[in-house]
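hey can u check if this looks right to u? its 149 residues, i copy pasted from the old doc so theres a chance i mangled smth
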Amino acid sequence: MYAAEIDEGLNHGRPAVQDAMAKQGIMTGIAVGGCCELSTSAHHLIDKIGTEQGYLLAESNGLDIDDAIHVAKRLLKGRIARQVWRGFHKHAFARRCYADPSDANLAEQHRARKQHDDDQDERQERQLIHQFCGWRHAQTHAHAGRGGG
């Protein structure tokens, strides 16, 4: 997978991965695999991108910088994990349908399972954001109630 593809899929075309990789020097690509652990370099890159996105989130929404960085990193890691596993399942599905071409319902089952997984991931992401916003709201009101204004 190329940096431009990751940027397109995760950052709506903004070159965050490309820029972060350019800052690394000789690095020209990053491999993200299905069943293997990510390298230390990949974790550092994801951490840097999440931090940058956290600053943007804090600036645009007025959130506390530490909270915004934490949320941005967690959301980024979730998006990458979904994309990695989606690619893994696509690869496994591509091989399986040729091994058993008589299974006419396999493609529909795969689509339904993918849709269900995507919906569940989206619900979990929304729930995390909702919990975070509720926590921030409670913190703001608790601070205001103590006369911190």
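Residues 3-145 form one domain.
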